[in-house]
Write a sequence for this structure.
């Protein structure tokens, strides 16, 4: 038996279990020296019943190496003490979302950091802060300029992300607001001599006015109508500034505004100051994003996602007002950035209104993933890197950006930062499809039937019964039938004995039986009704001359029935 | 600068922009894609016509045919890239919009890299005669533009109204699911639609290049005009687009006459915003039920 | 398959298999609606498919048309394999199946709101031959549904529910199909209208094609179709010729 055990291990195949163990019949009476008893005689081949058992229990789903369940590192707890909960000031939030649990296996407390994003944020921001110290000297200039541009564009994109992602307004006029504020402040600074520190504030005012004007159509229009309209508005701004003499149609922009960078400083200090100022601007935009998206307005808008606005409205969520509020707040932010833009570059050019700027900005949002702050920042970093650092490659870099954008849109649902969720969803879909496809025909209950059945034992009984029938079917062979024909009663080989045991155990309803038509001369096969008082029904007309032949007839019918299930 | 001149100009421009707007409208309503790569198709077919004029013949018919064919090819390209892979995926409208934008970015840069930044101009395909009608001088290209664009648009509309493919396209506009059940292949119809609308863009490009030059990014301004007309008329409605084209053409003529050229865009957008505030779905206004229902 | 023998009324020409479904499973995402189902329809046959809500009647039809989320198993329509065994975008290959000779008349109002009744009927005839013969076919449909004659130029969006159902069924009948799948023709209609729609379906001359009608209401089908098949949790149960339907125990 030991080697059968080995052979039956899952994996080491089940098809060829040897029929040696039972293909001889050992006479139990032999040791007592019964008369004419032989010790063992050859018998019909037999198969091990555990073969079917193992095969049924084996998982047939191929285990593909497609990801795993979410993994959390478990940190040790602090004994009996509570975890120190730092909260940051204006909110009552903890810095990290930490879940404490008691692990019943190790009998210890442990902690899980559920959301690790704040850690990544801090690491990334610190890296940006320290970046100027480790820049290679050859590229110092390019990289510092690119870094400053990155800060400004990341701030713009964060505000834009508030409009598109949080408020769900497909506005493509964000750069128009920035440009309008920049042109306005530049003009004021040149002609009225405003100092640099007023420019962002004046810009905010211009942004507010612009935001209010642009917000009016957003009340009535939805989705793409608004997107197309704002493309038009952008073009309108471009053409207007391009044609008007006041805004320097001849010089390609408006330059000469006051700047916060002291001209007396050395080149390096100037670029360092610019870098950190833009970095501070980006951090300010992040804080704005956090406060709008993560607090009341953001919550209201999360309750009214796309296609479920009507439901939200019916439950009393005034999402329209929240949308307009978010729009106006972000417009003020964009105006502020516009003023900063002027103070940073000492002016502004028409290219801020051009379609390509909008396109690149949209590429930044889309590559990172719409609706997340990290998407806006990382997308900006990628595009700015391609656009400003690889500037020597010419138009190829724009084609590259376009290709990345196309690839992201065609293959990813939510940008780079949506990959994880998308992959998880895909894996779950595949898994569940495979699971629902997998079902054997026959005795097993289908999932729907199983839920409808009162007696849950029945489910497992059926599964067991099916397994047994599968096994018994594999035992049937002409030799066994021949053996039964020779002696329906008496000692049998193991396979035949197992078959007969199964047949005998069948429930009474529709069980075959034999009636005597004429003693010792005529027998007939009937089927019992299973109900008291109801006569058995006659199954066939054939009359068997002897009892043994009738037994064999019943056996043949039962074998037939077994093979048909 | 007399009134007649301005009005004829406006009518000519309205015809061309109307052609573009109808193309955009049909695309949106039948395959649900906002084709912002239309400007790229426009520029591409301009270059196609130019290549035809350089290498094959300067005959007007050949040039127009080259332009229309290149436009149709461009439409097929956009269809294959931005419609086929994602049309049954979630968020198709947004992703389609962005995909077409990406195509227009790539395409514009590619055209710039291949043909260089210098503008090209096409031969005069309608000859150089002129007639005088009630004191207004009509040059050949104006008459030709108006006649050709109206004829082609009418032909396309008639074809959509009467033929089997047209019926397919209209059926798909109204109920894509039922269209599949009836036996209309969504992808195949997508290719038809995009080829036709691309052809319309090509035609508009050839006609417009009688007045303007062909440049890698020259398609942008016409596309924005076309978009605003389609928007004003109500996306998906051909009749609305025609009315809007006439209306905006008139507005352009009047503003240029009364206030000066630089205010044209401002009045135009004020007009559009006004119309959209009154009827959020444009002039036709009732179209969208079929797609969102 | 003794029911097939009963299904030949008056010695019709040699019957062949129109539809042969073998081991079909189908569903949407993680949900499995149809379970390893076998189903054969012969030419000239009218089959009733009876089952409760949510037991997979519509899904069976959709699976035949390739409109489910995923499916596997063999579906042979006129001897051509149309079943696909991978999960595909629903409806991606439906038009090819329709071209093989399938007319699906779906549940509810799957109509084109803006088209007129006439255009609607035209839209049903998308195979080239049917398109050429659409005049005659339209007349035939109008003979079955006389109320539509007056409405030929009205947009379908303005019709009443019963008229819409007529248009929808008429659109299906316009096709040069060898298999008509009619999904719940009486759903949402007044009993009288439902009966008249059913009578119209019964009056369609099938010739060598076949028709499968899914219904919840057995009474509407009894005695009118050649055989009735019950459907229970995604499997076919108890098949009987319609004449026997009164006597046999229904497993519904």
């Amino acid at each position: 038996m030991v080697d059968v055990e080995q052979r039956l291990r899952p994996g080491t195949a089940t098809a060829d279990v040897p029929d040696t163990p039972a293909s001889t019949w050992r006479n139990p009476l032999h040791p007592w020296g019964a008369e004419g008893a032989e010790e063992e005689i050859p018998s019909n081949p037999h198969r091990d019943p555990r073969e079917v058992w193992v095969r049924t229990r084996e998982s047939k789903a191929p285990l593909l190496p497609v990801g795993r369940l979410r993994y959390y590192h478990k940190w040790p707890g602090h004994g009996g003490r509570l975890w120190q909960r730092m909260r940051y000031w204006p909110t009552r939030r903890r810095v990290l979302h930490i879940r404490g649990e008691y692990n019943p296996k190790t009998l210890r407390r442990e902690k899980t950091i559920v959301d690790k994003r704040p850690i990544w944020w801090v690491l990334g921001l610190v890296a940006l802060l320290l970046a100027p110290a480790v820049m290679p000297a050859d590229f110092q200039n390019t990289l510092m300029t690119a870094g400053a541009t990155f800060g400004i564009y990341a701030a713009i994109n964060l505000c834009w992300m508030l409009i598109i992602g949080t408020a769900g307004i497909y506005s493509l006029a964000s750069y128009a607001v920035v440009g309008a504020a920049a042109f306005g402040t530049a003009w004021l600074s040149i002609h009225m001599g405003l100092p640099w520190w007023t420019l962002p504030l004046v810009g905010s005012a211009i942004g507010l006015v612009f935001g209010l004007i642009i917000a009016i159509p957003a009340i009535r229009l939805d989705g793409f109508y608004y997107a197309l309209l704002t493309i038009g508005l952008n073009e309108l701004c471009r053409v207007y500034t391009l044609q008007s003499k006041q805004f320097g149609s001849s010089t390609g922009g408006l330059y000469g505004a006051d700047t916060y960078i002291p001209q007396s400083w050395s080149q390096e200090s100037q670029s360092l100051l610019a870098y950190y100022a833009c970095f501070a601007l980006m951090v300010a935009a992040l804080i704005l994003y956090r406060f709008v998206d993560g607090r009341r307005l953001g919550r209201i808008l999360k309750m009214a996602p796309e296609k479920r606005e009507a439901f939200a409205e019916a439950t009393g969520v005034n999402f329209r007002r929240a949308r307009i509020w978010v729009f106006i707040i972000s417009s003020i932010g964009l105006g502020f950035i516009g003023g900063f833009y002027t103070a940073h570059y000492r002016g502004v050019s028409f290219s801020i209104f051009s379609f390509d700027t909008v396109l690149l900005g949209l590429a930044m949002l889309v590559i990172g993933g719409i609706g997340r702050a990290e998407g806006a920042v990382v997308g900006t970093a990628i595009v700015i890197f391609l656009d400003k650092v690889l500037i020597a490659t010419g138009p190829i870099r724009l084609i590259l950006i376009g290709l990345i954008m196309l690839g992201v849109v065609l293959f990813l649902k939510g940008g780079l930062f949506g990959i994880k969720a998308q992959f998880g969803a895909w894996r779950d879909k595949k898994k569940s499809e495979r699971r629902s496809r997998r079902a054997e025909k026959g005795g097993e209950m289908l999932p729907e039937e199983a839920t409808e059945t009162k007696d849950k034992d029945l489910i497992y009984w059926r599964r067991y019964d099916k397994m047994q029938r599968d096994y018994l079917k594999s035992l049937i062979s002409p030799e066994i039938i021949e053996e039964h024909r020779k002696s329906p009663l008496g000692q049998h080989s193991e396979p035949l004995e197992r078959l007969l045991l199964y047949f005998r155990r069948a429930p009474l309803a529709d069980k075959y039986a034999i009636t005597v038509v004429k003693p010792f001369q005529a027998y007939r096969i009937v089927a019992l009704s299973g109900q008291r008082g109801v006569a058995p029904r006659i199954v066939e007309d054939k009359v068997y001359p002897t009892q043994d032949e009738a037994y064999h007839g019943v056996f043949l019918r039962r074998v037939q029935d077994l093979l048909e299930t | 600068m007399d009134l007649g001149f301005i009005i004829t100009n406006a009518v000519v421009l309205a015809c061309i922009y109307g052609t573009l707007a109808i193309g955009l409208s049909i695309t949106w309503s039948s395959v649900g894609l906002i084709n912002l790569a239309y400007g790229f198709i426009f520029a591409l077919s301009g270059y196609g016509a130019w290549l035809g004029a350089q290498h094959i013949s300067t005959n007007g018919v050949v040039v127009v045919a080259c332009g229309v064919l290149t436009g149709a090819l461009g439409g097929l390209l956009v269809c294959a890239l931005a419609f086929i892979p994602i049309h049954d995926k979630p968020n198709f409208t947004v992703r389609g919009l962005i995909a077409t934008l990406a195509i227009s970015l790539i395409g514009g840069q590619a055209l710039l890299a291949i043909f260089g930044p210098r503008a090209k101009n096409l031969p005069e395909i309608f000859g150089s005669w002129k007639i005088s009608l009630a004191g207004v001088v009509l040059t050949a290209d104006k008459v030709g533009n108006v006649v050709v664009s109206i004829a082609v648009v009418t032909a396309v509309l008639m074809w959509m109204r009467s033929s089997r493919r047209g019926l397919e396209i209209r059926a798909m506009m109204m109920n894509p699911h039922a269209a599949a059940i009836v036996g209309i292949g969504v992808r195949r119809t997508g290719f038809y639609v995009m080829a036709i609308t691309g052809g319309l863009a090509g035609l508009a490009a050839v006609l417009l290049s009688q007045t303007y030059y062909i440049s890698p990014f020259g398609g942008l301004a016409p596309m924005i005009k076309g978009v605003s007309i389609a928007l004003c008329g109500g996306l998906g409605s051909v009749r609305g687009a025609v009315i809007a084209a006439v209306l905006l053409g008139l507005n352009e003529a009047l503003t240029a006459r009364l206030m000066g050229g630089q205010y044209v865009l401002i009045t135009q957008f004020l007009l559009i915003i006004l119309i959209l505030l009154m009827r959020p779905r444009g002039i036709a206004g009732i179209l969208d039920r079929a797609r969102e229902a | 398959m003794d029911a097939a023998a009963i299904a030949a009324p008056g010695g019709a020409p040699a019957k062949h298999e129109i539809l042969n479904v073998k081991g079909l499973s189908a569903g949407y995402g993680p949900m499995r609606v149809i379970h390893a189902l076998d189903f054969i329809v012969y030419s000239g046959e009218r089959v009733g498919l009876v089952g409760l809500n949510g037991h997979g009647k519509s899904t069976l039809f959709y699976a035949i048309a390739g409109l489910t989320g995923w499916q596997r198993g063999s579906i042979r329509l006129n001897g051509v394999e149309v079943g696909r065994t991978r999960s595909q975008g629903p409806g991606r290959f439906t038009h090819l199946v329709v071209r093989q000779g399938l007319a699906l008349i779906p549940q509810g109002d799957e109509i084109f709101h803006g088209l007129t009744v006439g255009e609607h009927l035209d839209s049903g005839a998308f195979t080239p031959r049917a398109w050429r013969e659409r005049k005659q076919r339209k007349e035939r449909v109008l003979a079955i549904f006389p109320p539509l004659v007056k409405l030929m130029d009205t947009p379908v969006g303005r019709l009443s529910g019963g008229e819409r159902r007529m248009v929808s069924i008429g659109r299906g009948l316009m096709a040069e199909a060898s298999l008509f799948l009619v999904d719940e023709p009486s759903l949402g209609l007044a009993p009288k209208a439902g009966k008249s729609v059913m009578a119209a379906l019964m009056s369609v001359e099938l010739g060598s094609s076949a028709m499968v009608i899914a219904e919840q209401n057995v009474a509407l089908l009894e005695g009118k179709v050649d055989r009735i098949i019950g459907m229970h949790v995604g499997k076919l149960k108890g098949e009987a010729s319609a004449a026997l339907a009164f006597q046999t125990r229904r497993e519904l």
